[in-house]
Design a protein that fits this description.
Number of helices of chain A: 4
Shape of chain A: globular
Low-confidence stretches of chain B: 484-497, 849-856
Largest interface: A-B, 18 and 23 residues
Structural class of chain B: alpha+beta
Number of domains of chain A: 1
Mean pLDDT of chain B: 84
Shape of chain B: elongated
Oligomer: heterodimer
Helix content of chain B: 40-55%
Distance between the termini of chain A: 23 Å
Largest sheet of chain B: 6 strands, mixed, barrel
């Protein structure tokens, strides 16, 4: 069972959640920024929204860390779009973050469960 | 579709994004807004409404910029603006070097050529310096070694000879300069009573020998004054190497008895490892023990192989002791004119006496590689100069922006510094590769070879050379490329290069040719020397000749000529019976290997000469088939036969030189001579034959007077065996040795060599000098040719317009070619002239020997004068030819210039 580093948890909850969401979505297939923001909005039932001014800086940060990689894709008669995909490094980070997240949820569950008992 | 740029770009303006990155972000975000806008329109919004909603995704304040600001892309590295006036010297330097590294990465070809050129130059220098350092510069491994001197005598011919014992004792009594004055006598011993008898080098030394050298035995003690007397019990000190080799480092070695030449000797001590001087002795014995009062030792006219070794008092210089010893020598000459007249005293520092033979060779080689490095520097300077031209505008712009000239020069120097460091590092690699090759090439007489290595001092030397190099090739281009006014006033268009720059190129070219010529001349002289040596007639057939030394000893042979003779006869019979052996003979002295017995002699029926003028000859007892085995032709009379035995009349065969010297117009057969001083009772001998001259002491020495005696009349227990073979001689080495050992397993056999090997050893230093100088000369010429080619090519490119113009006006290709060649060849001529002057000065070193007192040790050159006309005519021609070819390529290219293209050029 993974230990939860509480300080890390605090940090992760603030911005790590968004990273986890983006990495998870990109894990399936490469997507562009607008696609990502729409998916997060719809799949969370409108609960989570990433603004344009936080989504893109986040993408750039992930890219600088080498977890995702953006490439320009051109299509005839269209503006070119930047598609992002997860790098092998990013995939490793995603696995770790998923684990941390699962441990966190389980821990929370236990606390909630105790209250009910 | 609205233009989002005006909404996005202002939000990024506060960030330090690169323009490209900013454009990318604007594009990406615009795309996002496009998508959103389209969606809103599709949802039924008006365009204005849709625009407003889409943009509302940007929150209050500039969140976008706040989030991007911490990212790396918003923090680009501070731009390097070389030449901008800086505040911190160190950080400026670092900046310069970083900038230099960037410039070199952009020109990998240029960088590679420079680094390789420098690596060759620096590597060769470091390798040769390793030798100079180990052999000449490193102090000898003795305390106060700078106070040690070696003293010997010189004979009336000026040759170094050993000291007569009585003279030595007078030196000890009269000199005031020495803390201690001792002596050493080089001998050999045969260690017997072991499985394989060994022939060992030994030294008979005076009591104070060890304290002069400051050495103590690692085990046991040195001998006592009582043991240093004739008739005392025999004792010896042994070397660490022998102790381990023959006695398995036995800790109980002290007091043990060993057999030396069948005498029983007690070991009293073991010397520390690597204790050696002049030879690598395994045995030290007291000299006094050997000094039988009735022996020839106590005849002042005899030089029995003793050399004096002294330690100077503190504050006494070598030149002071040289003067004192000369005075004492003069006194002794006056007191004992019969034996001392014409004799001199030779006093040298120990260091000098050890390295004398090789010092001039090493210095010449050091000079040669120094020149190679200089040529390399000139080449690199040329390259940098040509490149600096391209960068003149860049420099100009920077100066216009306020960079100081000093700063720009420094930056240019950093570039050459960086190149030199790379060249130096690669040079160390080259040096370590070269070093192992050089060590294998080292002549056998090179002392202290074991100490040759890339030591700390060598690396320091390399670093110094590297720094100097960077300065040498960096400064000129640095100064020249910052000479800006010309660049701007000509508006970047150069009709011909500025006269200053052109003169610079020209003088570099001239220097390069001159340097190359000096090295080439040295190599030429050595090649001629080797050619002369190879063509020396040694006077005998050197091929298919196997030689070895053989010592017999034991009570049955001591002073027993018949027993020695019987053994030697049986040995020859055994050896001649071996398949493949044509003939075999014994001799005391082997040609090339050197005379073992030199003696004064008296010629019968001729006026007795003054003692100082009495002639000296090599006396050489040989067995009957010697001349036939060696292939020495008999010119007159007969050679020795079995009839010339111990009881028959004493006879001698002389060489041609001797016959010519004493009986120029007579038949020497039947004349008489006597070995020794006139008053000696040695027998008179009749000359029965004259044989052709052979080279006795190496290949280079003049042929001495040479008297052959029948071995059967002398009885020599230590002789050379010469075997004339049908197959390659070394194939018989083993069977000959076992044939000898089958007669007596306790004889020692050593120095088993073919005569060709013997010859190779004799000319080892010349061969090494020739190979190395030739290699350096080829390198120098090649580098010079590349340099010439580069400079002339550059000149042609510079004059393309001029040539095009001339051709448009009707000049023929021939004329243009001539234009280029004439100028180039004038420069080559200037370089050759300068080089010849340099060569005159430098090649003297090869011919002369650098000795104190002007006493000649063997010079490197043989049969060739330092100003050999053939060399001095041929080498300039060769170099000029190479230079001509290097000029031809660019000159031909000049003739292919299309006038139209040329006029548009630049």
């Amino acid at each position: 069972m993974t230990d939860i580093n509480t300080r890390a948890l605090d940090r992760e909850l603030k911005r790590g959640t968004a990273e986890l969401l983006i990495l998870s979505l990109l894990d399936a297939r490469p997507r562009h920024g607008y696609d990502l923001s729409k998916l997060i909005h719809t799949r969370s039932g409108g609960q989570i929204q990433l603004h344009i001014d936080s989504l893109y800086p986040l993408l750039y940060r992930l890219e600088e860390r080498g977890w995702i990689k953006g490439t320009w894709v051109e299509k005839p008669n269209e503006r070119r779009r930047r598609f992002y995909k997860v790098t092998p490094n990013g995939r490793r980070m995603l696995a770790k973050q998923r684990e941390t997240w699962a441990a966190f949820v389980a821990a929370v569950q236990r606390v909630i469960g105790d209250e009910h008992a | 579709m609205p233009d989002w740029t005006q909404h996005v770009r202002p939000r990024l303006s506060g960030l330090r994004l690169s323009p490209t990155r900013e454009a990318e972000i604007v594009e990406e975000l615009s795309q996002h807004l496009d998508d959103r806008y389209r969606e809103l329109i599709a949802g039924g919004m008006s365009p204005d409404e849709a625009t407003r909603v889409a943009l509302s995704d940007f929150r209050e304040g500039n969140v976008l910029a706040d989030y991007i600001a911490p990212l790396r892309q918003a923090r680009p590295p501070s731009a390097i603006t070389p030449g901008a006036s800086g505040s911190n010297l160190l950080s400026d330097l670092w900046q310069d070097i970083r900038y230099a590294a960037r410039m070199l990465r952009k020109n990998p070809g240029f960088a590679a050529v420079v680094v390789i050129t420098l690596a060759l130059g620096i590597g060769a220098n470091s390798a040769i310096f390793s030798f100079v350092n180990a052999v000449i510069l490193n102090p000898l491994p003795f305390p106060d070694s700078d106070r040690l001197v070696v003293i010997s005598q010189t004979n009336p011919e000026g040759r170094e000879i050993s000291v007569s014992l009585l003279n030595f004792q007078d030196w000890q009594a009269r000199s005031r300069s020495f803390e201690q004055l001792g002596g050493v006598c080089f001998t050999t011993f045969n260690l017997t009573g072991v499985d394989t008898p060994q022939h060992l080098a030994g030294q008979a030394v005076t009591l104070n020998y060890f304290s002069i050298l400051g050495v103590q035995p690692q085990l046991g003690r040195i001998f006592s004054p009582e043991e240093d007397k004739f008739g005392a019990a025999r004792i010896a000190l042994i070397s660490d190497s022998l102790w381990r080799r023959a006695f398995g480092a036995d800790p109980n070695i002290l007091g043990r008895s060993i057999k030396l030449d069948s005498d029983t000797v007690t070991v009293i001590g073991v010397m520390p490892p690597h204790f050696e001087l002049f030879t690598k002795p395994d045995i030290w014995t007291p000299l006094g023990e050997a000094l039988d009062p009735n022996s020839p030792w106590f005849d002042r006219g005899n030089h029995m192989g003793l050399y004096a070794l002294g330690k100077l008092k503190k504050g006494i210089s070598v030149s002071q002791v040289v003067t004192e010893m000369r005075q004492i020598g003069a006194q002794l000459e006056k007191e004992y004119p019969a034996v001392n007249s014409g004799h001199g005293v030779l006093t040298q520092s120990l260091q000098t006496s050890i390295v004398l033979d090789v010092r001039s060779t090493l210095l010449v080689l050091m000079g040669a590689v120094g020149f190679v490095l200089l040529i390399a520097c000139v080449n690199v300077a040329n390259l940098s100069l040509a490149r600096s031209l391209v960068r003149q505008q860049e420099m100009g712009i920077r100066m216009a922006l306020g960079a100081g000239r000093g700063r720009l020069i420094r930056q240019s120097l950093s570039e050459s510094f960086l190149l030199s460091v790379l060249g130096g590092l690669a040079g160390i690699l080259v040096a370590s590769l070269l070093l192992s090759a050089l060590i294998s090439l080292a002549p056998p007489n090179l002392p202290r070879v074991a100490d040759v290595q890339l030591s700390g001092r060598v690396l320091l030397f390399t670093a110094a050379v590297t720094l100097l190099t960077s300065f040498l090739f960096g400064l000129l281009p640095a100064l020249s490329s910052t000479r800006i006014t010309a660049a701007f006033s000509e508006g970047g268009r150069t009709s011909t290069s500025g006269p200053v720059r052109r003169r610079l190129f020209d003088s570099l070219l001239v220097a390069e040719i001159a340097l190359a010529l000096v090295v080439l001349t040295g190599a030429g002289l050595m090649t001629r020397t080797m050619y002369k040596i190879a063509n020396v007639d040694p006077g005998f057939r050197t091929d298919h000749l196997l030689t070895m030394r053989m010592d017999i000893y034991g009570p049955q042979y001591r002073n027993n000529i018949p027993n020695i003779e019987a053994f030697q006869k049986a040995a020859l019979t055994n050896v001649k019976a071996l398949p493949g052996v044509e003939s075999a003979a014994f001799t005391l002295s082997l040609p090339i290997a050197g005379s073992q017995w030199g003696s004064v002699f008296v010629v019968g029926d001729q006026p007795v000469v003054d003692r100082s003028q009495i002639p000296i000859a090599a006396f050489n007892p040989v067995s009957t088939e010697y001349f036939q085995t060696m292939g020495i032709s008999l010119l007159r009379g007969r050679s020795f036969s079995e009839a010339d035995g111990p009881q028959s009349p004493k006879v001698a065969v002389i060489n041609e030189t001797m016959a010519r010297h004493f009986w120029p117009n007579e038949n020497p057969i039947g004349k008489r001579l006597k070995q020794g001083w006139p008053e000696w009772t040695t027998p008179w001998r009749e000359v029965i034959g004259v044989v052709a001259d052979v080279k006795l002491n190496g290949v280079i020495d003049t042929t001495p007077l040479h008297v052959y005696l029948p071995l059967a009349q002398e009885g020599m227990a230590s002789v050379y065996l010469a075997v004339r073979t049908k197959p390659e001689p070394q194939t018989l080495a083993a069977s000959v040795q076992s044939a000898l050992h089958s007669l007596d397993s306790q004889i020692t056999i050593y120095q088993v060599r073919t005569m060709d090997e013997q010859l190779g050893r004799a000319v080892g230093s010349q061969r090494a000098a020739m190979v190395l100088l030739s290699a350096f000369a080829v390198l120098a010429t090649l580098l010079a040719a590349i340099g010439i080619y580069g400079v002339i090519s550059w000149g042609v490119v510079q004059r393309t317009r001029e040539m095009g113009l001339r051709m448009a006006l009707g000049a023929l290709p021939r004329d243009v070619m001539w234009l280029v060649l004439r100028r180039s060849m004038l420069l080559v001529l200037a370089g050759v002239t300068l080089g010849l002057l340099g060569a005159f000065a430098v090649t003297r070193l090869l011919g002369a020997s650098l000795t104190e007192g002007g006493l000649g040790k063997t010079p490197l050159l043989f049969g060739v004068k330092a100003m050999d006309p053939i060399t001095f005519i041929l080498t300039p021609i060769v170099l000029a030819l190479v230079a001509f070819l290097a000029c031809c390529l660019p000159a031909r290219r000049a003739t292919k210039i299309d006038p139209l293209v040329a006029l548009r050029y630049e």
